[in-house]
Design goal:
Elements: H1 2-32, H2 36-49, H3 54-67, H4 75-94, H5 99-113, H6 118-138, H7 144-167, H8 182-207, H9 212-225, H10 232-259, E1 280-283, E2 286-291, E3 294-296, H11 304-308, E4 313-321, E5 327-334, H12 337-347, E6 351-352, E7 356-357, E8 360-361, E9 364-372
Antiparallel strand pairs: 1-2, 3-6, 4-5, 4-9, 7-8
Helix pairs in contact: 1-2, 1-3, 2-3, 3-4, 4-5, 5-6, 6-7, 7-8, 7-9, 8-9, 9-10
């Protein structure tokens, strides 16, 4: 009798697992067709059927995350990020070495840090750093983990450097090093972080010698490290090394372009002038078939420091258009920090034709890309 009960339990478990897999497949199909709410419903059903199914939680977290807009302040948007985090944490409870969940948690923390300020921002960046450290320990061949840790080091250091330069009346393009006592204070606080960031980027480049994004950040960290040097000669030596990385970056990009290799952005993004004119607008969370064009479009000013460091790329925003066509809000999705402010200042001045839904002017959401391309 006991054997029959055990056999029945095993059969029931197998049937439940099979049902969960079938529901997951339905969710995947809905997700591929961009029916995200329907996909979420299927994945929630799969989780209910089989609470220990790693794939069910992973797909559910991914579906929530796909609807999350980084930087958007709406409570429902924050709820999507929170729901995604719950699912990815559950995946890691079931499979501590799941790299997809680790990457997703790191990405959530990093992009949540974007609009924050001060200690709250640092806390989120540290959280992202911890996730990437776990990923690097599990998968030493993953180049994105050390690259991202290098980017985070720069993101923590750069604002402090700019504040220090401003405090002593130095412009971003002025030669260094910084004067005392500011230099000594920054050296104590940030030297180890800068060296750790450079070391991580070196690891990424060891895994992929043509990793041009990593070259860009090595250039920045070494160039800016010069401000902490004791003499002008040491500062100039760091600048020369950074300039060599700039040239290597440009040579690598040129070689990739000639070979037809796409330039894939990492956590950075990146004037020339793209806009979101061919991107569908969204009203009430549903994409509409129409597209929008700015009737007033302002070209961004290429930041001098970004030009000096040979930084280029795309800055991407989610833009909310008011009923009268003016810009109601601009939320950063991705982009290199040296390029973001110039792009944002330009996009805030855009004006659109009013977006009409069923003949009525409506608020709408669209995506705007600003492309910064070095011309020489």
């Amino acid at each position: 009798m006991r054997r029959c009960v055990v056999l029945f339990a095993l059969i029931s478990t197998a049937l439940v697992a099979q049902d969960a897999r079938e529901v997951i497949n339905q969710g995947v199909a809905a997700f591929k067709n961009s029916n995200y709410q329907q996909a979420i419903g299927f994945f929630q059903q799969a989780v209910s059927l089989d609470p220990n199914n790693v794939n069910a939680h992973l797909y559910l977290g991914t579906a929530y995350m796909s609807q999350w807009i980084p930087g958007a302040a709406a409570p429902e948007n924050a709820a999507k990020a929170h729901s995604a985090e719950i699912e990815f944490r559950r995946v890691l409870e079931l499979d501590a070495n799941n790299t997809t969940a680790l990457v997703s948690m790191a990405s959530l923390a990093y992009h949540e840090a974007g609009p924050l300020m001060g200690e709250e921002k640092i806390r989120k960046l540290d959280e992202a750093m911890d996730w990437y450290k776990r990923l690097a320990a599990i998968d030493p061949t993953n180049k994105e983990a050390p690259y991202s840790m290098g980017v985070i080091a720069w993101a923590k250091w750069y604002p402090a450097l700019m504040t220090a330069r401003a405090s002593v009346g130095m412009k971003p393009e002025d030669p260094g090093p910084l004067p005392e006592p500011v230099r000594g204070e920054l050296k104590v606080k940030y030297s180890s972080l800068i060296e750790e960031g450079i070391a991580n980027l070196d690891r990424a480049l060891a895994l992929d010698p043509r990793y041009d994004d990593a070259m860009a950040y090595v250039n920045l960290l070494i160039r800016e490290r010069g401000d902490l040097r004791d003499t002008r000669e040491e500062w100039a030596a760091d600048k020369a090394v950074a300039d060599a990385w700039v040239q290597k970056n440009l040579d690598t990009k040129r070689a990739k372009a000639q070979a037809g290799i796409a330039d894939t952005p990492g956590m950075r993004g990146g004037a020339g002038g793209g806009d979101g004119s061919r991107t569908p607008v969204r009203d009430g969370g549903i994409f509409q078939p129409q597209t929008v064009n700015p009737v007033t479009k302002v070209e961004p000013v290429y930041p001098p420091l970004a030009q000096q460091a040979r930084i280029q790329g795309t800055v991407r925003f989610t833009v909310r258009i008011a009923k009268d066509g003016s810009i109601q809000s601009v939320q950063l999705i991705s982009g290199h920090p040296l390029l973001v402010k110039a792009a944002q200042d330009a996009v805030k001045q855009y004006v659109y034709d009013p977006v009409l839904i069923n003949g009525e002017p409506r608020e709408a959401i669209t995506q705007v890309d600003i492309n910064f391309i070095l011309r020489n």
